[in-house]
Design brief:
- The chain has 21 helices and no strands.
- It is mostly helical and 463 residues long.
- It has one domain: MFS general substrate transporter like domains (Growth Hormone, Chain: A), CATH 1.20.1250.20.
- Helix 3 packs across helix 20 (383-435) and helix 7 packs antiparallel against helix 16.
- The longest helix has 53 residues, at 383-435.
- The protein is globular, with a radius of gyration of 22 Å.
- Bound molecules: beta-D-glucopyranose (BGC).
- Beta-D-glucopyranose is lined by residues 149, 152-153, 262, 267-268, 271, 300, 367, 371, 394, 398.
- Beta-D-glucopyranose binds at residues 149, 152-153, 262, 267-268, 271, 300, 367, 371, 394, 398.
C-alpha cells in the first residue's frame, strides 16, 4: 500500500504550477464559451439561413455530437501522445472551428464547423482536468483542477455577454469567430508548458519526469514522489481489461455514475434555457430575462470560487452531498412555484431565487467535483481512456437531456419536469453517499493503491 496520503510531506509547489494550471484552464473557457454562445447566435443564424425546426436542432446539437466523438477519440490519444500535446491539438481544432464557423456560407458548412468545435470541446473537457491533476501537489489539487470548472463558468458568462452586445447588429459570425483568440493563446501558451510528469514516467522518460517535477514543485527533493509514481506504475498492466477487473471496477462505476447524474439532474436545461425559464417565471421582456440569466451565470462562477477554497479543506464528499441537497431543495420549490396558477410578483421572485440556489448548489458540488474526481480515481496507464469513458457518458447524458427537456415540459408540465429532476437528485445523493470516495489530500498513487487493496470507496478518506 502506497503511503502518500494525508501526512506525507509535500511542498505546495512553486507559483509556476499555478501558471501551468491557469494556462491549461483556457481550455475550460473555450468549453464554456462555445457551448454557451449558440443560445444567442442561433436567433440570427435561423433568420440568415432560413432554417427549418429540424435544421435548427441539428445546428444546436452538432456541438454535442462532436463532443461525443472528441471524448471517444481523446482518451487513447492522451494516453499515447501525452496530455499536453492533446491540449495543443484541441486548441488548434478550436481555432480552426471558430474561424470556419465564422465564415460559413451554407448550412452544411455551419453544421460541420460546429461539429468540429464540438470535437475540440469533447477532448479538452477531460484532458484539461487530467493534465492539471497530474501536475498538482496533492494538497491543492482540488483547487487547481477546479480552475477548469471556473473557466467553464467564466466562458459561459462571457458568451452570454458577448451574445447580448453583438445581438444589436445580429453579428453571429463575430460571436463564433472571437473564440479563436483564447484558442490561439492556449495553443501558443501550452507550447511553453511542461508535459505531465506522470505521463512521462509512464512512458519510461524518468529523467525528464524528474526534471519537470523539480520545476513544478520548486524543490530538488522529489525522490519520494518519483518513487511512488514508479512503484505504482510497476503494478499496472495498462490494458483496458484492468478497468473491468474487480479491483478498479468501483472507480469505473463512480465515474460513469457521477457523469450521468451530473447531467440528468438538469443543469444544462437551466444553462441553455434560462431565459425561457425566467420568462415562464414572469420576467416578460427578453432583456430582463437575459439580464437575469447573466446574474445566474455570475452566481455559477462565484460559487465555483467558494468551492475551490473548500475542496482541499473540507473535502470533496461534503461539498458534493451538500450541493446535491441544495439542488433537490431548490428544484422542489421551483416545481411548487410553477404549480401555482399565476406566477407573478413574489412567486416570480421565489422561482428566480430557487434557480439561483439551484445553480449555486451545482457549482459547489456536482460541477467541480465530477471533473475533479474522474481526474483522480483511475490508474495512471489507463487514466486517459478511463476518463474518456466517463466523459462520453457525460456528453451522452447532456445530449439526451437537451433533446428531452422541451418534450418533458409538454408531457409532464413545468412542475412535473422539475420534480422529476429533483427525484433524480435524490438518487444522486444516495449514490454519492455510498459510492463516492474522499480523495482530499491523497496522492494519485495512494488512491490507486486503495483500489488495488480491494477496499471500499468510502474508506478511502479514513485513517
Ligand atoms: C458541466 C457542463 C455545464 C457546466 C455549467 C460543467 O461541469 O459538465 O455540462 O454546462 O458545468 O457550469
Amino acid at each position: 500500500m502506497i503511503k502518500g496520503g494525508i501526512g506525507r510531506k509535500q511542498s505546495h509547489g512553486s507559483s509556476f504550477v499555478y501558471i501551468v494550471a491557469a494556462f491549461a484552464a483556457l481550455g475550460g473557457i473555450l468549453f464554456g464559451y462555445d457551448t454557451g454562445v449558440i443560445s444567442g447566435a442561433i436567433l440570427f443564424i435561423k433568420e440568415h439561413f432560413m432554417l427549418s425546426a429540424i435544421q435548427e436542432e441539428v445546428v444546436v446539437s452538432a456541438v454535442l455530437l462532436g463532443a461525443l466523438i472528441g471524448a471517444v477519440a481523446g482518451g487513447r490519444l492522451a494516453d499515447r501522445f501525452g496530455r499536453r500535446k492533446i491540449i495543443i491539438i484541441s486548441a488548434i481544432i478550436f481555432a480552426l472551428g471558430a474561424i470556419g464557423t465564422a465564415l460559413a456560407s451554407t448550412v452544411a458548412w455551419l453544421i460541420v464547423g460546429r461539429g468540429i468545435v464540438g470535437v475540440a470541446i469533447g477532448m479538452a473537457s477531460f484532458v484539461t482536468p487530467l493534465y492539471i491533476s497530474e501536475v498538482s501537489p496533492d494538497k491543492i489539487r482540488g483547487k487547481l483542477v477546479s480552475f477548469n470548472q471556473l473557466a467553464i463558468t467564466a466562458g459561459i458568462v462571457v458568451s452570454y455577454l458577448i451574445g447580448y452586445f453583438l445581438s444589436k447588429h445580429g453579428d453571429w459570425r463575430m460571436m463564433f469567430g472571437l473564440a479563436a483568440i483564447p484558442a490561439g493563446i492556449l495553443t501558443v501558451g501550452m507550447l511553453f508548458m511542461p508535459a505531465s510528469p506522470r505521463w512521462l514516467a509512464s512512458h519510461s522518460m524518468i529523467d525528464k519526469a524528474r526534471r519537470v517535477l523539480k520545476r513544478i514543485r520548486g524543490t530538488d527533493d522529489v525522490n519520494k514522489e518519483m518513487q511512488e509514481i514508479q512503484e505504482s506504475l510497476s503494478q499496472q498492466s495498462g490494458h483496458w481489461s484492468e478497468l473491468l477487473g474487480p479491483l478498479v471496477r468501483p472507480a469505473l462505476i463512480v465515474g460513469i455514475g457521477l457523469a450521468v447524474l451530473q447531467q440528468v439532474t438538469g443543469i444544462n436545461t437551466v444553462i441553455y434555457y434560462a431565459p425561457t425559464i425566467f420568462q415562464f417565471a414572469g420576467f416578460k421582456s427578453a432583456s430582463s430575462a437575459i439580464l437575469a440569466t447573466v446574474g445566474l451565470g455570475i452566481v455559477n462562477m462565484l460559487m465555483t470560487v467558494v468551492a475551490m477554497q473548500l475542496l482541499d479543506r473540507v473535502g470533496r464528499r461534503p461539498l458534493l452531498l451538500i450541493g446535491i441537497a441544495g439542488m433537490v431543495l431548490s428544484l422542489g420549490v421551483l416545481g411548487f412555484a410553477f404549480h401555482l396558477p399565476h406566477l407573478s410578483g413574489i412567486l416570480g421572485w421565489v422561482a428566480a431565487g430557487s434557480l439561483m440556489l439551484y445553480v449555486g448548489s451545482f457549482a459547489i458540488g456536482m460541477g467541480p467535483v465530477f471533473w475533479l474526481l474522474i481526474s483522480e480515481i483511475y490508474p495512471l496507464k489507463i487514466r486517459g481512456r478511463a476518463m474518456s469513458i466517463a466523459t462520453v457518458a457525460n456528453w451522452g447524458a447532456n445530449f439526451v437531456v437537451a433533446l428531452t427537456f422541451l418534450s418533458m415540459i409538454k408531457i409532464l408540465g413545468r412542475p412535473g419536469t422539475f420534480w422529476v429532476y429533483a427525484l433524480v437528485g435524490i438518487v444522486a445523493w444516495v449514490f454519492s453517499y455510498f459510492f463516492v470516495p474522499e480523495t482530499r489530500g491523497r496522492s494519485l498513487e495512494y488512491i490507486e493503491s486503495h483500489w488495488r487493496a480491494g477496499k471500499h470507496p468510502r474508506h478511502m478518506g479514513k485513517g
